[in-house]
Structures are given as structure tokens and as C-alpha cells.
Write a structure and sequence with these properties.
Blueprint lengths: L7 E3 L2 H27 L17 H26 L18 E4 L5 E3 L2 E8 L2 E10 L2 H6 L7 E4 L3
Antiparallel strand pairs: 1-5, 2-6, 3-4, 4-5
Helix pairs in contact: 1-2
Length: 156
């Protein structure tokens, strides 16, 4: 069972700009890798050193995992479509992600006393950013268990 806890963050203006850049870079990287998979005839192997993006390596690796997942779903849809009769087939388009989001795994962030800390790419280096988070007692109780991944969705 998976439990989702929504937390409201209070970033400063500089932190907000960094989050926006990080989330846009993440989505761009995922879309780029998915298109690379679609063009390639063979299986591609990516690691954080193979992709060029202004993101910490842990976030790059997560983007690679997400791109693989998106591409596998696309391939399944193409195969399922091919099994249909020709008059029932529809065009299956390669997905393009648009919503700015970034994901950190449970080893790369921490939440202590209403402060969320996670790595971001600043001036060519990966640095931890600390941001104030608003949590209720119920949310804190839910987060006492084993943490899952951190997903930040940027909204203006």
C-alpha cells in the first residue's frame, strides 16, 4: 500500500526559481530520453554520466527510470494497437510530458522539523537546498514510517 502525503512548501524567490529550473530540466530530460528510445533500433543504456542536464546525478537517474517507464507504456500501447483489426486501429503517439515535476528517491531528501532538504544543481555543482514545509500533526505521523520518493510539482 502506498500513502501519499501532500505538503505545502514555502520557498523563497530564489528557491522558487531553482525549483522551476529543476522541474523544467527534469521534464525536458525525460522527453529527450523517450525520443532517443523511440529513434534507436537497439536497446539504449543510460546512466547519469551519459545524459547532459543541469541536475544532480540522483535526479538524472530517476529521470532515466521515468523515461524507461513512459517508453515501455508506449510500446505496450503500440503492440496492443497492432493486434486490432485494421479498421479499428488508431494512431499511437509518442507521449510528451508537459507538467513540470522532479522526483528524488528516499535516499536523497530528508524532512526534519518542518524543513525539507534535497539536492539541486547550483552554479555547476550539486548542493542541498533547505526549504520550509508546512505539516500538520497527522501528516507528521504518516511520515514517521519508511519514506518513499519525493515528488515536487511546480505550480505558479
Amino acid at each position: 500500500m502506498q500513502i501519499t502525503v501532500k505538503v505545502k512548501l514555502q520557498p523563497t524567490k530564489e528557491q522558487f526559481k531553482l525549483l522551476m529550473v529543476t522541474t523544467k530540466n527534469y521534464i525536458y530530460l525525460v522527453n529527450q530520453i523517450v525520443s532517443d528510445y523511440a529513434v534507436a533500433d537497439r536497446n539504449l543504456k543510460y546512466s547519469s554520466k551519459d545524459v547532459i542536464a543541469d541536475l544532480p546525478s540522483a535526479v538524472k537517474n530517476q529521470a532515466i527510470r521515468d523515461a524507461k517507464s513512459v517508453f515501455v507504456k508506449y510500446k505496450k500501447a503500440v503492440r496492443a494497437n497492432a493486434r486490432l483489426k485494421p479498421d479499428e486501429q488508431r494512431e499511437v503517439k509518442l507521449p510528451v510530458l508537459k507538467k513540470p515535476v522532479a522526483i528524488w528517491n528516499n535516499q536523497n531528501y530528508s524532512l526534519k522539523e518542518d524543513v525539507l532538504s534535497f539536492p539541486v544543481f547550483v552554479e555547476g555543482k550539486s548542493k542541498r537546498m533547505e526549504m520550509k514545509a508546512i505539516l500538520t500533526g497527522y501528516q507528521k505521523n504518516l511520515l514517521n514510517n519508511k519514506p518513499g520518493s519525493l515528488r515536487i510539482t511546480a505550480s505558479t
